[in-house]
Amino acid sequence: VQLVESGGDLVQAGGSLRLSCAASGFTFDDYAIGWFRQAPGKEREAVSCTFDGATYYVRSMEGRFAVSSDNAENTVYLQMNSLRPEDTAVYHCAAVLVRSDQTRGIIAPHEYNYWGQGTQVTVSS
C-alpha cells in the first residue's frame, strides 16, 4: 500500500491549491481516505474523511476545502480555496479499511493504517 501526495506549493493569501493523493496497492472503494495537516509545533489536525461515497469535513474548513476523487485513477484531490496563512502546514493523506460498523464522520488519526509522506503548503500574507 502506498499513498503519495503532491501539489503543495507557496501561495499568497486568498489563493487556491489542489492537492493530490495517489493511492496504490489496495482497492480504493474499500477504504476511507482522510486528509490531515500538521503545522510546525502543532498537533495533527483532521481536514476531511471520504468513504462510501460521502465526504465529511471538519467544520472550520467546510466551504473553503472540497474533496473529489477519481476512482479510475485511485486518486483523491483536496481543493483548497481562499487560503489563509494559518492553513500553512504539511498536508497528509491516509487510508484505512472501512469496517462494517464504521461510524459516519471524521475518523480519528490513530485509526488509519497507511500514511503518505506529506506535501508542504505555505500561505504567505
List the topology elements.
Layout: E1 2-6, E2 10-12, E3 17-24, E4 31-38, E5 45-51, E6 54-57, E7 65-70, E8 75-80, E9 89-97, E10 114-115, E11 119-124
Parallel strand pairs: 2-11
Antiparallel strand pairs: 1-3, 3-8, 4-5, 4-9, 5-6, 7-8, 9-10, 9-11
| SSE pattern | EEEEEEEEEEE
Give the proportion of residues in helices.
under 10%
Tell me how many strands there are. 11
Q: Tally the helices.
A: 0
Distance N to C terminus: 37 Å
What is the mean predicted local confidence, pLDDT?
Answer: 94
Low-confidence stretches: none
3D structure, described in words:
With 125 residues, this protein is mostly beta strands. The protein is 0% helix and 51% strand. The strands form 2 sheets. Strands 2, 4, 5, 6, 9, 10 and 11 form a 7-stranded mixed beta sheet that branches. The protein has a 4-stranded antiparallel beta sheet with strand order 1-3-8-7, with no helix packed on it. A hairpin with a 2-residue loop joins strand 5 (45-51) and strand 6. The chain starts with a strand and ends with a strand. The mean pLDDT is 94.
